[in-house]
Amino acid sequence: MTDSVVSAIVVNWNAARELEVCLSSLLAQSYQPLEIIVVDNGSTDDSVHVVRALGVGWLPLDGNLGLAPAFNRGAKKAAGEFLLFLNNDMRFDANFVESMVSQIKQDPEIFSVDALQYDWDGCNKVHLATSIGKKPVGAHDDQLVPGLYICQEARDVPTTVLMSSGANMLVRKSMFTMLGGFDERLPMSYEDVELCWRAWIRRWKSIFVPAAVCWHRVGHSTQSTGGSRIRFRGTLRGRLLMATKLLPVNYAIATWWVFLAGLTKDLVCLRRQRVADRIEVLVQSILDLLPLLRERRELYTSGQVNPSEHLKRLLQLAHV
Question: What is the pLDDT of residue 1?
């Protein structure tokens, strides 16, 4: 036994069968004490019965608030020194939590720990060690904003990285609280990148731990038409918010320009649903523009660094 409580916070929405698998693998973890809290985004299936049958914590919300707000609600209820943020469409190796906690305890400047993700069948690695780069380097890379990519590469040893995946992120609760939690303007997509980016401004590290292994039904929660639209809006919103709040001015301008060009193209092609989604995101982003600019100034002033200097520092992570 150890005196460091870990609080696992699992966000759920109408996924009772996946939740049962996820919680069963958490209950089989070698690490104790482990508090498990399911934060439910207004499910109408039998998720509550699954949770009660397995005897773990249940925090129902009034509706589907999104991932970041649900994580924040769970964090406020959690008793642990460490918070483990998890998706519900996951299962975990028996030593998953132990491997992550062992790493984070090695250095008080570590904010978050990331894990190695396989697809559900275990045939492919779907999440590796992350870095930021100006060009893609592999099949798992994803464009953050125009001219910047979140790159992923295999590592066999613990490695300093850009960010931890929100599907399997372990953080120190004290640091998470000081950062103000996840930005709730990002209900789905980029919430993990944005949080770790802010942690790095304070020089708090993220570490990838390949010994911590999990399996993920990637994209399972957004397979429906409604889910894919939520993901589309979330991605657009995330890019605009990240660029405005955290990136150098040239990247911010390019991101807004590409967004407006996409809106124009959808208008010309009469893609009504896409146009409606883009306009919704545009209105939200314009309303938040001044607050984001104030937050940007406060963040970088307190960190005694400017956005360009900070980006240069993060770009060097790929070479560590």
Answer: 44
